[in-house]
Structures are given as structure tokens and as C-alpha cells.
Specification:
The complex is a heterodimer of chains A (308) and B (282).
Chain A lengths: L1 E3 L6 E3 H18 L4 H10 L4 H26 L4 H28 L2 H34 L20 E4 L4 E4 H18 L4 H12 L3 H27 L4 H22 L4 H24 L6 E4 L5
Chain B lengths: L11 H23 L6 E7 L3 E4 L6 E11 L2 E2 L8 E2 L2 E2 L3 E8 L2 E12 L2 E14 L2 E6 H6 L2 H6 L8 H5 L3 H16 L3 E12 L2 E8 L6 E11 L2 E14 L1 H12 L1 H23 L3
Parallel strand pairs in B: 2-14, 10-11
Antiparallel strand pairs in B: 1-3, 3-4, 3-12, 5-6, 7-10, 7-13, 8-9, 11-12, 13-14
Helix pairs in contact in B: 6-7
Chain lengths: 308, 282
């Protein structure tokens, strides 16, 4: 069934889009990630203008992180104080990111920066995750049990900064500066890359802030939900790049896929899941690297009112 | 090329037509003597649609241009039984149909290798670029027409203003790239044999509008030449508009971006909540 998208201004097949939503939803349910880093490149690949892909994906992530955050809120695995401080940084970062997005689009370097951000962040995070999960798998084999990623009692420079705050549920007493900074960095990425930023925030919270793993996911989902909602409203207001019909098709597909993904994920061990996710993250990063280093078939591109 | 009717290779039909042409010629000369501004041939043409509505299920559209060349009240040569020889219709006329979409400003960019990465480097701005362009010609015009004629009436992609103004070789490469990209997307079409004669004075051509056409007024021009002289021309407007739910959404998003954004987020939260309710296990 064909549908003419109001903002993207192209005709798509509804079932193709919902199928993509379901496939990415399956993976994100399995790995517990938002899936923006997979969905945004896919949308660009099928011909959605990159700006619309990034803007629209923000609203879809808001939907999927909302249902995720709700579950964690009920279970009590969500630190609202920590989430709010992260959010304060996130809103500032997203506002800056949207202006940067508009400027890059004007000078014709948006696609380059999107590709470069994907290459840099995905290859670094993917490699770190892969190494960490392989080590954990080796250790798990020796010890014969699951491994906690948290090593309590270690202190780094982060913990010597001023403006300390107490986060009760995380049992943390740390400076607000790195928390706001992490939130802001994720906000910028959400505006430019069309991702939730969980793949940056979760490791940063675990390794830099030493947040207990049980509240990390819920708290990051809480922040992602509000930041992507804010980003979507800002993109709709300043760049007119949010396609509500595209977003709705993705949300419905994503919600269904995520349920099956979550069931599939329970059958795998945490380290195995992290290793698989790392491979996927690396693959997307390599794909973008290829775009940058392989000579394109056609060197020219057009930019105009419609971009066609 | 327009087929000359030569008395020495005459079959009966041709002779009669020749006679008729002579008579017509005398008539034309007579009329012209009275009113020199009057042209003999008239062009009647019509489009299969006078407007296109892009609705939610728009998958592109085909438009047929149908035309007849008349002389007085009679369609030229339409009733000649022997008009067809060797499957080809002999005609004195050459036809070009040109369709132009609304004009816009376009920036073309070229990638260069910088520090090992392919990055947008040089660029060139073009003004008044048609967003859509079709040049369909009858085979006889494409074969025989001189460069000057095609240039004079801006027939063909090479004769578009933005291409001609980019005469510098470096700029011209950008213009050619622009044309190539739009040809690939079905936005620029050039076909030297797409105007088909149904009878010597009756012709037809079909052009396709892809899903990515912009809205606005498209101008469909028909040019009739006889032996490289323009004898009639006519331009009709084809209005492309958006309708239906997609159009209403797009208009609302443009005029009330903030509220539209809030509504999208509300929809996201409602969908997320609904999904949570349906699939809740605890």
C-alpha cells in the first residue's frame, strides 16, 4: 500500500516502513537500545532526505523510550534526580545541536558531519564494547557465572570535581558537572545524528560516573525520552523536518518488533548480547566509513528547496 | 525532415494533395494579401488532465498531449486515405512539446578527496532552473532541425538558459551533472521521437510526472514548424496541487510548527503507552 509522506514528500510503501520499524524494534528490544543508530541510516538509504530522517527518528525514539522508561519507573530502576540533571544538560545540548544542524545544512556539509559522527562514535564505542564483552565472556567461562561490570571503590578525576550532588537511588555522591556534560553531549548527538544516544550515555554512566548497572538503563531512557521529545519539537519548529506519518508507521512497527526482540534477548547471556550489539554497531560505523573513503560513482549532488 | 511533395514522384493521392496544397497556398496568399498578420495554420491542442492533485496515494501521473493542426476549418491532411506509406505518416509539419515546471535556485556540489575522505568541495549556484523539464519532438524535427532553431525556441536540455549561461568549462560540468541527476530521477526528459503523428496533421505525445514533482504551475508548450519555420504555438498551464490528508498535514506543519511538533510527541507518547499496555506482562 503506497502512501505519499507529507514532509518527506516521497511515496513509500506503508508495509516496507512498518517492516523496517519492526526489524529495528526487534533488535532494540533484544539489546535494550533505542535503535536510532540503525533506523536513521536505513531511512536515508531508502531515500528519505537525511534531514527528515534525523528529525523524524527523534519522535520515534521518544515513543519507544517512553514505554521503556515506564517499565523501569514501575520497577523502581530509575533515578529521577540523576535523570533530571542529565536532562538539563541534554536540553541545552539539543538546542545547540539543532542550530549546528541548520548551519551545516546551509553550507552543504551536513551529510559529511552525519557520516563522520557515525564513523567516529560507532567505531570507538563498538570496539570498546566488543573488547569488554569478549573479556567478560572469557572471565565468565573461568568463573562460571555472570559478571558485574561495576568495580566499586575505584575513584577517578571525575569524582574530584566540585558541585557535588547526592543521587539516592544510585547511591552516588558526585559532581553535577560530568553529569550535565554527558547529558549535553548526548543532546547534541540526538539533534545531529538522529539517535537517542544511549550507546554513549550508558557506558559513560557506568565507566565515568560509576552508576549501578540496574538503574543505568531506566535513567538513560528517562533522559532520552525527554531530550528526543524536545528535539522533535525543535526540529518541527525550526527545520520543518518531522514527518508525523512516517514517525507513526515506524512507531507501530517498532512497538511490535520490540516485544519479540525482548523475548529473544532473554535467551542470550548479557555478555553475548553485548558482543553481538558491538558487532552491529561496528558494522554500521564501517558502512559509513566506506561512504567516506570509497570514491563515489557520481561526484556531484544537488541542494535546493526540494533537494531533488 | 518535412517530406516534400514532388510532382515527379506522384501517386494519385499525392497529386490530389499537391493540387489541394496549391489551392490552399493560393488561398493563403489571398488571405495574406488582405490581412498579412494572419497565419494559415492553427493549432488545437489539449491535455488529458488540466490539473494534477498529489494526494496521499500519489504514485506519479501520465499526461497525454493531443493536438491537431488545422487550416481554416479542416484538419490538415486528416482525411487523406493514403497518408500512410511504409508505416510512416508523411507530414509537412514538425512538432515539439516542451513542459516546464516551476523555476527554483539550485546549488550543485562536487566531492573531492580531502585527507583521504570524499567531501563536498567546489559548488556552483544556478538560478531559474526548471524543477521539471520535458522536450519531446517528432522524429522529423529531431533529425533535420538546425542548432539555431533548437536554440531559438529553447528546445532540448542543452538549450536551457542555466546551461547556456554556464559556458565556462568548469561551470558547464556542474550544469551537466545537474541534468544527469535529474534525468535519473525522471525530472528531466528529452526524447527526439516521442511525438507521434496519428495523421499528417494530428499528433500525440505522453509524458510522465514522477512522485517527486514539486507543486505549482507547469507550462506545456506546443510548437509547430513547417520546414523549420514556426507556424503555430500554444501554451497551456498544468496546475499541480496537493490535496488530501498529506497536504493538510504539510500545511499545518508549516504554519504551526511548534504545535505540530507537540502533537507528534503526544502521538509518540500515546503509541508508546499503548504498546506498553498491550504487551505488559507484569
Amino acid at each position: 500500500m503506497q502512501f505519499y509522506l507529507p514532509i518527506a514528500e516521497i511515496t513509500v510503501n506503508i508495509f516496507t516502513i512498518m517492516g523496517m520499524g519492526a526489524a529495528v524494534g526487534f533488535l532494540s528490544g533484544m539489546f535494550g537500545v533505542g535503535g536510532g543508530f540503525l533506523m536513521t541510516p536505513l531511512l536515508i538509504f531508502i531515500g528519505i532526505p537525511p534531514a527528515v530522517a534525523v528529525g523524524t527518528e527523534a519522535s520515534q525514539i521518544a515513543a519507544s523510550s517512553f514505554s521503556g522508561a515506564l517499565v523501569h519507573l514501575r520497577r523502581g530502576s530509575l533515578d529521577i534526580t540523576l535523570g533530571l540533571v542529565l536532562l538539563a544538560g541534554g536540553v541545552v545540548g539539543a538546542a545547540v545541536g539543532i542550530q549546528l544542524f541548520r548551519y551545516l545544512r546551509e553550507i552543504g556539509q551536513l551529510d559529511l558531519i552525519i557520516a563522520l559522527s557515525y564513523v567516529i562514535f560507532l567505531s570507538v564505542i563498538g570496539s570498546l564494547m566488543l573488547l569488554e564483552s569478549l573479556r567478560a565472556m572469557r572471565r565468565a567461562k573461568k568463573a562460571g557465572g555472570p559478571v558485574s561490570m561495576r568495580k566499586p571503590g575505584q575513584h577517578m578525576w571525575v569524582h574530584r570535581l566540585p558541585f557535588k550532588m547526592r543521587f539516592k537511588r544510585s547511591k552516588l555522591y558526585v559532581s553535577a558537572i560530568p553529569v550535565v556534560a554527558i547529558g549535553a553531549a548526548v543532546g547534541v548527538l540526538s539533534a545531529i545524528m538522529g539517535v537517542g544516544g544511549g550507546f554513549i550515555m550508558v557506558p559513560a554512566m557506568i565507566y565515568l560516573l560509576r552508576v549501578p548497572t540496574n538503574v543505568v538503563i531506566g535513567t538513560s531512557l528517562f533522559q532520552i525520552m525527554f531530550v528526543t521529545a524536545f528535539t522533535a519539537v525543535m526540529q518541527a519548529t525550526t527545520n520543518f523536518t518531522v514527518d508525523v506519518m512516517l514517525a507513526f508507521m515506524l512507531m507501530v512497527g517498532g512497538a511490535i518488533g520490540a516485544q519479540f526482540g525482548a523475548q529473544a534477548g532473554q535467551k542470550l547471556k548479557a555478555e553475548q548480547l553485548r558482543a553481538l550489539l558491538a558487532v552491529m554497531v561496528l558494522a554500521v560505523g564501517v558502512r559509513f566509513l566506506m561512504v567516506l573513503i570509497v570514491e563515489p560513482d557520481f561526484l556531484y549532488s544537488l541542494a535546493g528547496p526540494g533537494g531533488h | 525532415m518535412g517530406q516534400d511533395i514532388r510532382p515527379n514522384q506522384c501517386n494519385p493521392g499525392h497529386c490530389i494533395r499537391h493540387l489541394r496544397a496549391v489551392c490552399a497556398g493560393i488561398a493563403i496568399v489571398a488571405t495574406m494579401a488582405i490581412n498579412p498578420a494572419t497565419s494559415a495554420e492553427k493549432l488545437i491542442s489539449t491535455l488529458s488532465d488540466s490539473g494534477i492533485e498529489i494526494n496521499s496515494s500519489f504514485t506519479g501521473e501520465q499526461i497525454v498531449v493531443f493536438g491537431a493542426i488545422t487550416n481554416g476549418d479542416v484538419v490538415v491532411g486528416a482525411n487523406d486515405g493514403d497518408a500512410q506509406s511504409e508505416g510512416k505518416i508523411e507530414t509537412d509539419y514538425e512538432v515539439a512539446v516542451v513542459v516546464r515546471g516551476p523555476e527554483e535556485e539550485i546549488v550543485a556540489r562536487r566531492k573531492d578527496r580531502i585527507l583521504g575522505l570524499w567531501v563536498n568541495a567546489a559548488s556552483h549556484s544556478f538560478f531559474k532552473v526548471p524543477s521539471y523539464y520535458v522536450a519531446h519532438m517528432s522524429g522529423n524535427l529531431a533529425e533535420g532541425a538546425s542548432e539555431e532553431l533548437l536554440r531559438q525556441y529553447k528546445l532540448g536540455l542543452d538549450n536551457l538558459n542555466f546551461v547556456r549561461s554556464a559556458y565556462d568549462p568548469a561551470d558547464h560540468a556542474f550544469a551537466e551533472a545537474l541534468i544527469q541527476i535529474r534525468k535519473d530521477k525522471g525530472l528531466y526528459i528529452e526524447n527526439p521521437e516521442a511525438v507521434e503523428f496519428l495523421a499528417p496533421g494530428v499528433f500525440r505525445t505522453t509524458f510522465e510526472l514522477p512522485t517527486i514533482i514539486p507543486v505549482g504551475t507547469f507550462r506545456v508548450s506546443v510548437f509547430i514548424f513547417r520546414h523549420e519555420k514556426l507556424v503555430a504555438a500554444r501554451t497551456e498551464n498544468l496546475l499541480v496541487t496537493k490535496t488530501g490528508i498529506s497536504d493538510q498535514i504539510a500545511k499545518f506543519a508549516r504554519s504551526n510548527g511548534f504545535i505540530y511538533g507537540l502533537m507528534t510527541v503526544a502521538l509518540a507518547i500515546a503509541t508508546g503507552w499503548f504498546a506498553g499496555v498491550i504487551f505488559r506482562k507484569d
